[in-house]
Every structure is written in structure tokens, then in C-alpha cells.
Design a protein that fits this description.
The protein is built from twelve helices and eleven strands. The strands form two sheets. A six-stranded mixed sheet has the order 6-7-8-9-11-10. A five-stranded parallel sheet has the order 2-1-3-4-5. Strand 1, helix 2 and strand 2 form a beta-alpha-beta unit. By secondary structure, the protein is α/β, with parallel strands linked by helices. Helix 1 packs across helix 4 and helix 4 crosses helix 6. It starts with a helix and ends with a helix.
Length: 315
């Protein structure tokens, strides 16, 4: 269990905070970052809070990151959210802060930070923050609740994943009580743009289906350009092949042109198999049933396809 009183002391004992998320942030990373910033601003208006990093997400609407520099980092407490390893932080300079705090729901594989608050049973980092804010008994504005709800909703794929628990639903209900507009948030997060709508047809037409229950596809650089989507935006639609009863394991890869030639980034999913252990073999990671890899060579791409196929056969 996370010591929420210790988390509250972190906020009370520092005057300046720099909040970081992981590279290629999803809604849980951004929701926890901006949700925490909003909560601190509402309850500790004299404290300075900077939402740091360079990346954002095309899913949902998010504020811009704050301007900051190394001097601000060195004089602040860094809180790194939803980031499994130090190497995945959006800005490696977080380590220069006078104190580094990690709040996360990924298992501790590579410890970093002086203070670590991890609950691997939580479905999202936003779930952890919601439970903390409820325990603290301080103001939780509609804006704060919206940020946290967006992270909770997306990391559970609308409360459909195996890590969705009674605690998850309790936090979602508590956030809903703050007056958030649930239908509007769903539209914001899940309504498709026209390029994304067209992409769904391409995804279904390109899926390779193995008899063992493994389905996969890979999008070329040219296809990504044609549909006007980045690799991460395209892979965000892996759920298009995630609702087929016959698929036990599924994956979506996108090509990326580098100085060393074509590299492959991938999103891996499963109903039961531990795809995160496969991702870890190639420098990636994530949750048991949802993980990612980046920068695979052609040989590694073929290797991981074989491993995923084997995982589907043994599930």
C-alpha cells in the first residue's frame, strides 16, 4: 500500500515542483501530470508547479507544457509520473532535481528516485492520484477530476482490461461525483478524425491472421504519411483488432526511417499472455497484457513475431 501521508508531506515540504511524464505520453501520463499540477495549484497556491517535457498526445485535449530550465529543475522537487524506468522519462534532466519522487503503477524493474510510490495493482497512475486526493480530503476541482478520469478511462480501455478492479471503479465514481461531463470526455477521447476513420479500414485490410490466434500488422512509412498520422498515433488504434474472439495475442507495428535503415516500433496486446516479458527482451515494457517496443531491427521484428505467435499458442 502507498503511504498517502508521506506523499502529502512531499507536497507540504517543498515550494517548487517539476512534474515529468514518459516519452510518447498517453492519457494516463498526461492526466496524472496535469491532474497533480491542478490539485497543487488549487490547494497550495503559493507553491510553484511546472508541467515539464516536450511531448504530448493527439488523443484528447491537454494544456501546453510550461517553460522551464535547468535552474528551475535544480531548485525543485521532481515528481516523475507513470514512468517505468528513468530512461523513458521525457526529459532526462529530472535527475538534477534536489529530490526525485516516482509515482507509478508499473512494477519496479529499475529503481530510480529517492522516494518511490508504486502500486502495481492500480490500473493507472491516475487511479493512485485519485485515491491519494480522496485520502487527503482537500479540494478536487472539476478540472482536476477531468484530467484524472481521462487517464483512468483510457488506461483501462473504458474499464474493459483485466487490471480494472473494484478500486478502479470506486475512484472513477468518486471523480464522477465532482461534476465531470462523462459523455463529453468520451467523445473527446474516442471520436475519430477523418484520417483516423480511414485508417480503420486499412488496419482491417492489412491484418495477418495466424491459426493459433495471433493477429498482427505493420504500417509502412509511406502509409503513415498518406494518412497523415505519426507512428504513435497510428499504433493508438491497435484496439481496432482487439475485439475479435479468435485473437488471443495481437500486435501493431509502424516503420520508422533512421540513419541505420528501417526500424519498427510496436504495440503488443493479449487477453492472457504476458506480452510485457516479451517486450522486455527488446528493451520495451509495460503491463502484462499491454506493452510496447521501439527501434526493432528487421531481424528483431521477425523474432518478436515468432515469440508472440508462440505466446498465442500456449495461452
Amino acid at each position: 500500500m502507498i503511504d498517502f501521508n508521506a506523499l502529502s508531506r512531499v507536497i507540504e515540504e517543498s515550494d517548487s515542483f517539476v512534474l515529468f511524464h514518459h516519452i510518447n505520453p498517453d492519457c494516463d501520463a498526461l492526466g496524472s501530470q496535469f491532474g497533480l499540477k491542478s490539485w497543487i495549484n488549487d490547494n497550495y497556491p503559493d507553491k510553484k508547479v511546472y508541467a515539464c517535457g516536450t511531448m504530448t498526445s493527439s488523443q484528447g485535449e491537454w494544456p501546453a507544457n510550461d517553460p522551464y530550465d535547468e535552474e528551475i529543475i535544480r531548485s525543485s522537487t521532481a515528481i516523475v509520473l507513470d514512468t517505468a524506468t528513468a530512461a523513458r522519462a521525457d526529459d532526462e534532466r529530472f535527475a538534477e532535481a534536489k529530490l526525485v519522487v516516482r509515482i507509478d503503477h508499473h512494477p519496479v524493474s529499475e529503481p530510480y528516485g529517492e522516494l518511490v510510490f508504486v502500486n502495481a495493482k492500480a490500473a493507472a497512475t491516475c487511479e493512485i492520484l485519485s485515491a491519494w486526493f480522496r485520502h487527503a480530503g482537500k479540494t478536487v476541482s472539476v478540472k482536476t477530476a477531468e484530467f484524472l478520469y481521462k487517464g483512468l478511462l483510457t488506461d483501462t480501455l473504458r474499464f474493459s482490461t483485466s487490471n480494472t478492479t473494484a478500486d478502479t471503479l470506486r475512484e472513477a465514481a468518486w471523480l464522477a461525483e465532482k461534476g465531470i461531463d462523462i459523455p463529453a470526455l468520451n467523445r473527446e477521447l474516442f471520436d475519430l478524425t477523418m484520417p483516423e476513420f480511414r485508417l480503420t479500414s486499412l488496419i482491417r485490410s492489412k491484418v495477418n491472421i495466424e491459426d493459433c490466434g495471433f493477429a498482427w500488422l505493420s504500417m509502412t512509412v509511406r502509409e503513415q504519411e498518406e494518412y497523415g498520422l505519426s507512428g504513435s498515433e497510428a499504433r493508438g488504434h491497435i484496439d481496432e483488432i482487439g475485439h475479435v474472439k479468435d485473437f488471443r495475442v495481437w500486435a501493431m507495428f509502424t516503420e520508422r526511417q533512421t540513419e541505420d535503415g528501417i526500424r519498427y516500433d510496436g504495440s503488443l496486446r493479449s487477453k492472457k499472455a504476458a506480452v510485457n516479458t516479451i517486450a522486455a527482451m527488446y528493451g520495451g515494457g509495460g503491463h502484462k497484457n499491454a506493452a510496447g517496443v521501439k527501434g526493432l531491427s528487421s531481424a528483431e521484428f521477425n523474432q518478436i513475431l515468432t515469440l508472440l505467435k508462440q505466446a498465442a499458442q500456449t495461452e
